[in-house]
Amino acid sequence: MAAVKETASTAPQTPERSRQQRLEALRRANDIRSERARLKERLRKGELAITDVLSDPPPCVHTAKVLDLLLAVPKYGRVKANKVLERCRVSPSKTVNGLTPRQRKELVEVLRG
């Protein structure tokens, strides 16, 4: 089998972005990280229920790992959080937006438990 040599025309290209576009993307990413940190702090303090976040996730947590959110909940350490994910057949690397309707429903039911 012959190796295919990548040329300039076949190599994957990242879009060219101006300095302004890159700075805007960084600003948006930092805003999302800050908003996510505030949400996780509210989970830690018990001001917000994890079931509410999973049922109707705000945009800032769409790309967050479900495991990371569970770890922000009081009384959920790595072992207990992983057991919940295993019980609901959810990968530890699954993002909130990547949950199937079945997984989301099972997680909410188990966490309300």
Task: Report on the architecture of this protein.
This protein is an all-alpha fold and 113 residues long. The chain contains five helices and no strands. It has one domain: Helicase, Ruva Protein, domain 3 (Orthogonal Bundle).
Can you lay out the helices and strands and say which pair or pack?
Layout: H1 19-45, H2 50-55, H3 66-71, H4 78-87, H5 101-112
How many strand segments?
0
Give Rg in angstroms: 19 Å
* Assembly classification: single chain
CATH class: Mainly Alpha
What is the count of distinct domains?
1
Catalogue the unreliable spans: none
The largest sheet, given as strand count, sense and whether it forms a barrel, is: none
Query: Span from first to last CA?
Result: 56 Å
- Series of H and E elements: HHHHH
Mean pLDDT comes to 92
| Overall geometric form | globular
Q: Could you say which structural class the secondary elements and strand pairing correspond to?
A: mainly alpha
Strand fraction:
under 5%
Helices, by number, come to 5
CATH topology (fold) name: Helicase, Ruva Protein, domain 3
As a percent range, the share of helical residues equals 40-55%
- The CATH architecture comes to Orthogonal Bundle
